[in-house]
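Much of our argument rests on the idea that a fold can be written as discrete symbols. Part of our work consisted of pairing the sequence of a single chain with a tokenised description of its backbone. The amino acid sequence and the backbone structure tokens for this protein are reproduced below.
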Amino acid sequence: MKDEVILAIESSCDETAIAILKNGKELLVNSVNTQIEDHKRFGGVYPELASRLHLQNITKVLAYALSLKDFDYKTITHVAVTGGPGLPGALQIGAMAAKTLATYLNVPLVSVHHLAGHIYANEYVTDFKYPLIALIASGGNSEIVYLPSPMKFEIIGETEDDAIGEAFDKVARELGLPYPGGVNLDKISREDGIKTFPLPKPKVSGYNLSYSGLKSHLIRMIQKEARDEEGKIPLYVIKSYARSTEEHFVNQMLDKLHQAAVDYHVRQVVVGGGVSANSYLRSHVSEVFKNDDIEVMLPPLWCTTDNAAMIAKAAHHMIELGHLAPLSMTTKPNRNLEDE
């Protein structure tokens, strides 16, 4: 039987990434070009700049990926690409490259949902056991998703306002931490002995989440804090805010995740998205499930941020199910996970 070799492209936000996956298991290439330094001066991702940089970087990253390990591009059997959701211009750059490659190589095209990629990133640890519950936690998404079988998604809980990563970033910015805020909030809150303080607990129905009110409450508190002659808040106070923010934001999410997993009688819980790299989340998620017969999975740290390896994993399952895309496919910046 001919080997399945997927070349995958991810360009939904501020990473230009290429991966090559063989037979759904062997990751031959995983190349990521990040734009974090380019967007720092804006305090967040600037969409127009992201598109320009994708255009500049896509051929370089592709050429680099294909030059590794004496790889023969003629063995590629499928080209996969993130088809949404994401920044409109950024998505189009990746789709243009994927369509060109698929046409040149005369191989099928696969259009992958970005969040499906974050979920299936966990398969770089172990295979899925269905039914399962997935938690997606990132700068743009906070969702609890039920998967009864491969590539079948039912959103059973979601944020009613801000995503957790977005809320982390806004609190971090108010504390004067550099971009990316959520990452730096995590870094300064890791040491032992940091004092925390109580915060109100949002009242949200079902498995839904809410971060906007808690974020606004924290920002108002920070604005009232005493500052030194340079206008800076003392470091120990910043650390206290950072740790308290993490605990209250993550605990809300883990409480809802646990309830959903128990109610749906699942075998596994998986976590995906950029916030799955958060130290507090990674150290506490298994503790929440310690008395349950439910396996908890976290993606490798290298697979928490946007990358093409996760897109290739999801594409592998789509190929098995026969979910291919025409060369006329269009990107969908607001693509719905439940439509997969």
Summary: The chain has ten helices and ten strands. The longest strand covers residues 26-34. The chain has two domains: 5-120+303-339, 126-298. The domain at 5-120+303-339 is CATH 3.30.420.40 (Nucleotidyltransferase; domain 5).
